[in-house]
Amino acid sequence: MAEPAPEVGGRRAAADILVQVFARGGNLILGIVVTVLLVRGLGDAAYGQWTTLFAIVQLAVVFSELGLEPAVVSRAATDEEREGDWIGALAMLRLLLSIPASLISAIACLIIADSGEMELAGILLSATLLGSVPSVLRAFNQLRVRNDVTMIVLTVNSVGWLAAVVVLAARDAGIVAYAAAFLAVSLLSSGLQAVLSLRQMRHPMRPARDLWRPIIKAGLALGGAGILMSVGSRAPQIFVFELQGDVQAGLYGAASRLFEQAHFIPMAVMTTLLPIMSTAQRADPDRARRVLETAIDYLVMVSLPGIPLAIVAGGPLLEFLFGVEFAAAAPALPVLLAAFVLVAVTYPLDNMVIVLGLQGRLIFIALTSVTLALTLNPVLIDRMGFEGAAWAVLIVEAVVTVMTYRLVSSRLPFQVVTPRLVRIAIAAVITGLVLWGLDTISAPLFVLVGVTAIGYPALLVALGAINVAELRALARRQPPPQLAD
Fold first, then answer.
1. Choice between 275 and 288, residue whose per-residue pLDDT is larger
2. pLDDT tens digits along 288-339
3. Which of 42, 179, 367, 444 could link 121 by a cystine bridge, Cβ 3.0 to 4.6 Å?
4. Angle between helices 68-76 and 83-112 (to 10 degrees)
């Protein structure tokens, strides 16, 4: 008989989140370095082509995933005896979806491409959809709250992609070579994920066809909503390319890359908390509410200081990272980082929607978001250039956050504006005022970044948004009270 899965307590959950945050933080740094090298190696025009192709491929990725993975994790967490069947069925469905998704992606890239090199690069990038199918076995790690394995694979992928970009940049390679390297690294990391994840398997894995229908039923609404929302989030990049050209697309791509890289924080937190929220909601809804409120507080805490830093030092920061020509992208950066705060709030709300079984209600939210995106982007980009795309993202995210909050709170009443959240906002405002004062005396970039990195956490402690005992508990890999059993 298979060994029963151990109970996952707050200590294990807190440790898993910390491992992910540090690992994803390290990978964020690697990703920024890669982006810098990629932008400098390709130039603003070719980088505009790259980011546009990437936006198309990411749309196809959402179609190939169709919301099945979180749906399966939520189900398998409460059906341990058949977890191998659940994940085997997930892998087969992912393969069947990835075949048409990769073809649709390749065709879309061919249609939008404005050169032969861009066409070939689009085909190579589209092939990553098929190559990534084995990576769904990371669901085993998520169920065991062993996401450190997934972080190892992510790090291998980041290091491999960095090495490839360094070599290609030194050789002044074109966009096709970068796409081929990206495909090769993706295949390597996907295979490694499968090998390491299978070690977590306690029950035989088989493509149980009897589970296909419940998986599709559970994931279809979530996946459909994900596709629509992805269209809305990727549309700005494509609209900028089509309406303003590849140079402005490159500027917007540089600013939006920082916005997208920051997603590692809510991803790390919610990867761990989804199975915990699923079991808590069935056994102790009050604990699920506390976990939700705590997740929102901490995600706002880590996302909010980016806004004042971007307002004061957006231009110098982008120039330092990507080159002097990308300083012009500065107006879009604070707007996108404001949108990221809303994204950080929406992550735990979306996960609670899954836990509460309300995925079908997400379709209306997604339809609203994509309608807004397709309406606002052409108008705002035509009037404001690439900066209009950033404002469209912010408006859409605000609407989505409000609608998702109302959906969740209708079933699980909770306090969104907590006393901790008010203290966090005060700390961010004070940080912004200090940065503005330093900027008036022409303080250099490293001083502004240093003040944000040191002064903002100090303000959080001074205002009581974080208490020292809580920090010591986390340092000892112990849970905060809200995650404790």
1. 288
2. 777 788 788 888 888 888 899 999 988 898 888 777 878 888 999 999 999 9
3. 179
4. 170
pLDDT over threshold 80, residue 10: no
Contact 15, 481 (CB under 8 A): no
Between 163 and 351, residue with greater pLDDT: 163
pLDDT tens-place string over residues 67-120: 777 777 767 766 677 777 888 888 888 888 889 999 999 999 999 888 888 999
Written as one letter, the residue type at 422 is: V
Rounded CA separation 370/174 (Å):
33
Alpha helices, DSSP H, located in 284-322? 285-303, 306-322
Q: Contact 2/82 with Cβ under 8 angstroms?
A: no
CA 349 from centre of chain: 14
Check if the beta carbon of residue 452 is closer than 8 Å to that of residue 435. Answer: yes
Inter-residue contact 40 to 58 (CB < 8 Å): no
Higher pLDDT, 17 or 86: 86
Q: At what angle do helices 147-170 and 10-65 cross, to 10 degrees?
A: 50
Q: Hey, what are 369's tokens?
A: 């978001």
Dihedrals phi, psi of 172, to nearest 5 degrees:
55, 45
CA-wise closest residue to 333 among 317, 313, 310, 316: 310
13: left (phi over 0), alpha (psi -120 to 50) or beta: alpha
A 10 A CB-CB count for 131 gives 19
Q: H or E segment at 234? A: helix 212-244
| 248 backbone dihedrals φ, ψ, rounded to 5° | -65, -35
